[in-house]
Amino acid sequence: MLKELLKQQKFLYSQIQLYKRKQRHKQDKPDWNQVIQKDSGKWQAALNQAKTGANILVATSVGGDIHMISIESLLAVALTLRETQVHILLCDGVLPACFWCDSQIYPNYKYFARTGPQPDLCQNCFTFAQNLLQPLGLIVHCYSELLTPTDARETEKIAHSLPFSEIPAYTLDGVAVGEHALAGALRFYARSSLQGETYGESILRRYFQAALLTTKATQKLLQTVAFDCAVFNHGIYVPQGLIGEVARSLGVRVVNWNPAYRKQCFIFTHHDTYHHQLMCETVSNWENMPFTQEQEDELMGYLKSRWDGSQDWIWFHEHPEFDLQAIASETGVDFSQPCIGLLTNVLWDAQLHYPANAFENMLDWVLQTINYFAQRPDLQLLIRVHPAEIRGTLISRQPLVEEINKFIPQLPPNVFLIPPASGVSTYAAMLQCNAVLIYGTKMGVELTSMGIPVIVAGEAWIRHKNITMDASSVEEYFEYLAKLPLKQGLDEETTRRARKYAYHFFFRRMIPLEFTTEAKNASEYKLKEFGLDDLMPGKSKGLDVICNGILQGTEFIYE
Fold first, then answer.
1. What region does 544 belong to: left with phi over 0, alpha with psi -120 to 50, or beta?
2. 3-state secondary structure 165-210
3. Other residues' Cβ atoms within 10 Å of the Cβ of residue 466
4. Residues 446, 529: one domain?
5. Which top-level group of life is the source organism from (predicted)?
6. Domain check: are 342 and 250 in the same one?
7. For residue 412, is it within any domain?
8. Is the pLDDT of residue 316 over 90?
């Protein structure tokens, strides 16, 4: 009886989440029919002129995601107005799992393992995108048109017969199918491992088949149409990660994008997801740029605003605690004694292979660091667990505090922990530290700008900028720790270099699109009302930078 009640409760919760998504669609979707009707002659002329232009694939695929389809339909219209033949790629319910599925929508894992998203999520997803794009009259390719019954049978056979342990390393025609399938399944569960998940193998096999199908569909499309560039959100997971892998393997340029932290801003990268590209960006993009006192003041003002998120549409605390006495009282740390900070990431997020990582994974890094500090009673270690564990888009089902407790039930007396729910200001706490240890957080960009030395053990974007101490092996990492406490903070020259990079990162790589505005839900966005003329070349500097980058391969840098 209790089991049946729990099942019903999970089903009801799932339906509520789906209803909320549908309501956001109604509130936030762009009305392209209204935009086109105001100037239908201009739009028809643009469509005709575009037929002789370059072929660009806007590979949205998951059309039900209101944020993806809003920006990518905007790009499709802007590129068409620049005499470009735009093609759209949409999944029409073929994939047995995808980026849009997660454990919050499907808390009944048995149900999802058995049925997947087709009975409920897929129909809403495709229909929404189809209706939104229909007024534009663009070429739309659907997965079902690219895949045959033979493809379905072959991929199902591989997905269900390959040994579970071999899936993550599986490749097809050089495409890392297994890596993105695993990343997709981990994102579904909001965990960094499938260990202990009863239906983990079944759900991974769903993502594995979806990855195989995406690979085949994308190969067929790119081998049929000569595309100059493929543009799509994020660049990892299923299906986006596979589209990028296939495009690169066939010599098609890739552009990925993601919302930035600053309001109305977006990050675009060439070739691959920003998770990889920002870490290896050439320093020549910024180290010789003019950097005036006015720009420095603008940067420092913005960084200060990040303490409460007033200029961002992604933030985690509405009323952070800045008082050091209150922070010391809550955590137990003594700021009058040498203190080293440690900032974590969310364990499940972007589980990809990074050659630069010194450790096997972030948890391994945290545990080894705690054990090291247990032998250093002369130092305090203050660990700040990322608030996004409980305040992010997906609530983590693998809380770091619990993971630490499994291996280290009793923290050493000189190790202190700020849990994700705490209102303690990360900035206020870390600025009291002699140095800060990071894995993949962007906080390395901010802290170095404030003169705080940073040691990098993972895939943080501040790596490779000649600003931080970058560990490429476990041995090198502990060599850096052996130098602690440092005698002084960053010198003036390094701090200025850090600020120059931070300005580049926050003000040049984050490209403003004034057509966007905040949606009703916090940290979400939607498109404003505008006309076709507003999207023409020369009308929006940010849009011009983005379109030029897509069409000509120029850097996505907003001067």
1. alpha
2. HHCCCCCECCECHHHHHHHHHHHHHCCCCCCCCCCHHHHHHHHHHH
3. 11
4. no
5. Bacteria
6. no
7. yes
8. no
Same domain, 333 and 371: yes
pTM, to two decimals? 0.93
Residue 88's identity, in one-letter code, is I
Q: Name the DSSP class of 535.
A: G
Residue 477 belongs to a domain with what CATH number? Answer: 3.40.50.2000
Residues 307 and 412 in one domain: yes
Backbone CA torsion sign across 104, 108, 112, 117? negative
80 pLDDT more than 70 = yes
Beta bridge partners of 172: 175
pLDDT in tens, 321-331: 999 999 999 99
CB 477 within 8 A of CB 455: yes
C-alpha span between 82 and 106 (Å, rounded): 42
User: Using an 8 Å Cβ cutoff, are 415 and 369 in contact?
Assistant: no
Closest listed residue to residue 346, CA positions, set 317, 389, 382: 389
For 192-228, letters b (16+ CB in 10 Å) and e give bbbeebebbebbbbbbbbbbbbbbbbbbbbbeeeebb
Across the beta sheet with 265-270, the strand order is: 139-142, 85-90, 55-61, 229-233, 253-259, 265-270, 510-512
pLDDT bucket at 137, cuts 50 / 70 / 90: very high
Do 482 and 518 fall into the same domain? no
DSSP label at residue 536: S
The pLDDT value given to residue 234? 87
- How confident is the model over 215-254, as pLDDT tens digits? 999 999 999 999 999 999 989 899 999 999 999 999 999 9
Alpha-helical segments (H) within 337-399: 362-373, 388-391
Residue 33 sits in which domain range? 27-148+226-278+512-552
Is 268 within the bounds of a domain? yes
- 527 and 382 belong to one structural domain: no
Cβ–Cβ under 8 Å, residues 192 and 363:
yes
Tokens of 449: 């700008």
Residue 522 lies in a domain: yes
Question: Could you give the number of structural domains in the chain?
Answer: 2
Instruction: Write down the residue that tokens 């120059």 correspond to.
Output: 500
Mean pLDDT of 336-364: 82
d(CA 321, CA 427) in angstroms, rounded, equals 10
Residue 384 φ then ψ, to 5°? -105, 110
Please classify residue 425 by burial: count the beta carbons closer than 10 Å to its beta carbon, then call 0-12 exposed, 13-18 middle and 19+ buried: buried
Closest CA to 85 of 500, 401, 429, 551: 551
C-alpha to C-alpha distances, 322 to 76, 77, 328, nearest whole angstrom: 45, 45, 11
| Residues 247, 349 within the same domain | no
Classify residue 13: in a domain, yes or no.
no
User: Based on the domain organization, do 40 and 124 belong to the same domain?
Assistant: yes
For 448-459, how does the pLDDT look when each residue is reduced to its tens digit (9 = 90+)? 999 999 999 998
